[in-house]
Amino acid sequence: MASNSRSARDAADTKLSPRTKWAIAGFLAGGTLAGLVGAGSSALAVYFARRVITPAARHEDQEILAVIRGDKGLQVILAATPDTIIDGVFSLFFSAGQGHARIGRIVSYSPAEQTVLREVEEVYSGNLSEARRAWWSGATYPDPAAIGLAAEDVEIDVDGGKAPAWLIRADASASAPVWAIMVHGRGATRLEGLRAVRTARDLGLDSLLISYRNDGLAPSALDGRYGLGSTEWRDVEAAIEYAMDHGAQEVVLFGWSMGGAISLQTADLSKHRLVIRALVLDAPVINWVNVMAHHAEMNRIPYNVGRYGQMMLSHPLGRRLTGLAAPVDLKAMDWEARAVELRTPTLLIHSVDDDYVPFEPSASLAEKNPEMVTFEPFDGARHTKEWNVDPERWERVVRSWLQRQLAPRNNPGQSSATAPAPGADKGA
C-alpha cells in the first residue's frame, strides 16, 4: 500500500509547480489542523497564508521594449500596464535591483499596440539601454543626496542587532524637538520615505528613515516571517528611543501600506506612545482581514479557503504550517472595529482605485472617529503612489494638516488661532 501511495505521489509531482509542491508539503506536515478541510483546499490555503507573511524578492514583471534618444534626452518604450499608463514620476529598477532610473511624463500612449513612451529623467545606476525587464516603483530617489540633502548613516539597536537608518536634519546645527520617523511598506525599503522628507524638513522636523526586520537591511526575525505589524512595531519603538536619546521630544510617524499598520500598532502598544504627536499614513492597512479577503477574491481563491488561510495565521496550531514563531492577532489590528480606541491624530491618504489595499477601511475609520482621523482621498494613484501622481497636492495636504497638529498646545486663555505653527514662516 505504501508503494502504491509513493507511485501516485511521484506521478502527481511531475504535474505540480514547485510552489504547489511546497504548499502541499506544508499541508502534509500540518496533520490534524490541515485535515479540517479537503487536501487541495488545505494546500491552497497554506500557500496563500505563507505568501502573505514570507518576504520575497521583487519580480521584474515590467517589459522594457526600447530605449531611444529624443530631442530632450532619453526616452523609454514600455509595455503598457495599469502602472505605466499613469502620468507622474516613478522608478524603474532593473538588473536585479542594481540598476535604477527615474521615469517621467508620458510622451505618447498607443492602446492598439499596448505600448507607452515616457521620458527618462535620470539614470542613477546601471545601463538602461541593455535592460529588458524591470519592476515599477513609487520609490523615486536612490538616496538623500538625490534630493539635495545631506544624511547621517546611523544604526538603531533592535532585536537581533543593529538596523541601519538615514538621519536627515532640518537644521544641521541642532536637533529638532520633533522628528519624523518614516516606516516603509511590505517588500519596500527606506527609499520609500524619501518622498516625504522635504515636507517634513519644511516643517522643521528631523527625519529618520528606518529599516526593520526582514526588509533586507535590518536583522531578520528568527522565524523569517512578517508579523504584519504585530512584531515590527518593536523596531519602530527602538527608532523612537533613538530619536529621544538624540534630542527629540516628540515624533510623527509616517507609514506606507504595511508601514501604516506598523505605525498604528506602535501608537497602540509602545511605551513611548504618548510622545507620538501624529500619524501620517499613506495607503495604510487598516484591516488585514479585509486585505486578505480582497486578495483571495482577486486570485479567485474560494472564500472558505481564504478564511482558512486567515485562521492559520491567527491560530496557535497554524504555526506548524506557516512557520510563524507566534500567531498573528488579526483582530487586534482591525482598526475599523477599534476605531474609537485610536487616540493619536491621524491623516489617512488613500487612492480610491487602490487595488492592493482597498481604500474603504480608511474611509470607514475616518467616519467612525472623525475627532482623531482625517481622510484625504486621491484618485488614479493606485497603491502608495499618491505623491508620484500629484506631489504638489500630497505635500500641501500633509503640510497643512501637520501644521495644525504641531501648533503649540494652548495655554489657558490662548486661542489656537493666535498660536504660531512650526514652519509657518516657510509657507503652506
TrEMBL record:
Keywords: Hydrolase, Membrane, Transmembrane, Transmembrane helix. GO terms for molecular function: serine-type peptidase activity. The keyword Hydrolase applies. Residues 224-405 form the Peptidase S9 prolyl oligopeptidase catalytic domain. InterPro entries: AB_hydrolase_fold (IPR029058), Peptidase_S9_cat (IPR001375). One of its GO terms (biological process) is proteolysis. It holds the Pfam family Peptidase_S9. The chain crosses the membrane at residues 22-49. It comes from the Bacteria. Residues 405-428 are annotated as: Disordered. The keyword Transmembrane helix applies. PANTHER family: ALPHA/BETA HYDROLASE DOMAIN-CONTAINING PROTEIN, XAA-PRO DIPEPTIDYL-PEPTIDASE-RELATED. This is Alpha/beta fold hydrolase.
